[in-house]
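User: Sequence for ATP-binding protein below. Tokens please.
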Amino acid sequence: MGGRFVRIENITIENFKNVKYGTLDLTNRKKNYRASIVGVYGQNGSGKTALVDALQVLKFALCGKAIPEKYADYVHVDEDHATLKFQFKMQRDEVSYDIWYQFSLKKMIDDTHSNEEGVNADLEYKTQIYDEVLSFAYTSKDEKVRKGPLVDTRTSGVFVPKSKFNELLGEVTNDITELLVTKRLVQTQGRTFVFSREMINAFRKNCKNEKYMALIEGLYTFGNRELFVIDTENSGLISMNALPLAFKYKEKNSETVGNLMLPLNVAAPIPEDAMELVKKIISNMNIVLEEIIPGLTIDIVDLGPMVSKDGKIGRLIQLMSLKNNKAIPFQYESEGIKKIVSILQLLIVVYNNPSITVAIDEMDAGIFEYLLGELLNIISERGKGQLIFTSHNLRPLETIDKGFIAFTTTNPDNRYIRMTNVKGNNNLRDFYYRDIVLGEQNEPVYNPTNNYEIALAFREAGEVFGS
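Assistant: Structure tokens for ATP-binding protein:
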């Protein structure tokens, strides 16, 4: 694969949510596909969502943004910290990089909150990210460099190794005190040090090694413009009559990346300069939408100008559904159609762009199983980007290559596996069901239930109501 692209090849999770340890290879080793698709299946509470949450934390980290407080509670209850490790493949011009990035996070008391008397109020917490290690290896037509650390913050100083420190920061190396202050500051704010705004600017200003800078810029761009994570909060917003719309739209000389939140039960205000962009995104989606749901397109109705509280001019719009040229408010469509529309623009980009990674939790929620299988089959066979999804619907197990499927286990110390001994003519759905019953894999994939005990529990619970 030529050109410039970044792709995640492996994720390792330690002590995060209900995953004591789990590692998942995201590459299909059996066949040479351009697209990288990984569907993760498993019992409720077995680590599927933890994988998507880990990717969400990665996005915050690579963007240099503060890790939200809720992720501090995701550290395993028996441990004081969690560790997330990611391996990337990056192609830039004629240089091929293998990159490893890892960090730990823990829950810390946020002592910046106090009342007027200076006495601590009810305790508030924050997420601290620390012990970052960025390692690399690369191959070009002129040289080959083996794996080694580029930035290792596991030191009382700024970072090691010293040789890389000097190459990355050059003239700044004389001002160690300021760098140490920056390191401590970003940690107290729940941000990463390596990809903080302060350090990115310092690297850009002082680094003379083009390969090192290309590596850092590549990951920074990937986090900000090429990695999209759609978690279950999106489904919750759809249920509350709002449409979260993530997008990446490229024209000849410009590219726009962002998120829109459109309330569906009332007219939605948007900035006036965003109006044309929204129209273009919707027009782009309609090309695919009317093919996967025949007769359906969407449009916006411009209800006129409005002035926001800060005095800025905007437009009021209403999202409409057009079925066979008859317009109805989009809020009356099914949640499945709303879900498809909310992720469709990202699926278009995944199909066409090799340097895009989209992770979607519970991708099957509300979507007709046959359509889901067809969409995944098309993207896996002909797409270019990377799609990571979790699902409860087993239909895709029959439509996409077996190398694209992974499963969770009931073992918290080994959460993710690929099925072994699957023959080419095996139906993976039937194979999975058989393993639930017979337990033929090295790790159990399902905690068995007892129908009689379940029925008895229903009966006992019903006795409370005197039935």
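The two ends are 66 Å apart (CA to CA).
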